[in-house]
Amino acid sequence: MKRPETSPRGRPRSFDERAALEAALSVFWKHGYEGASLAELTAAMGINRPSLYAAFGNKEELFRRALDHYTAGAAGLHDAALRQPTARAAVEMFLRSMTDALGDCKNPRGCLLVQSALVCGSAGESVKQELIARRAAVRAAWRKRFLRAKMDGDLPADADPAALARYLSALSAGMAVEAVNGADRAELRRMADVALRAWPV
Known about the structure:
By secondary structure, this protein is mainly α. It contains nine helices and no strands. The N and C termini lie far apart (about 55 Å).
């Protein structure tokens, strides 16, 4: 029989930590880091503040845990796109996956990494910097993929892998903002189609 989880003081926890984390993720996703109040978080998680602090430390650590959960869910699709045989196929899979995720009515609108970074003030500077670093890591992975494509002759000799990676990052962020503004899946797919028609090869 699985033993109940315990708090740092050794008392059994009376809530499902994973379910509570997913509830917190939904609140952060809807409102961003700074926009999510502790009252909203604890209400969604079904716990009180002492339980939140005991299980997750504080709001910032809770957000980091939720962010890890969020990015882990997207990592499989992202990695699958990067493994495609051509740069164009990789970009197409990535954009199609983006439109499906952003247009899924079961999810909150937009992208957690984009929304939280845009609204962070000085109080959330450390969170903002982490979000920037995570997006930079994604750009670096695409830059590496495009550099390999250029070396393989899959991209033109004058292609700029860094610029292409930044373009793709900007496009995906823009699609996320459009989703927040109400764009549906069909409209997001048209944005992706325009980008693919402009692809170097």
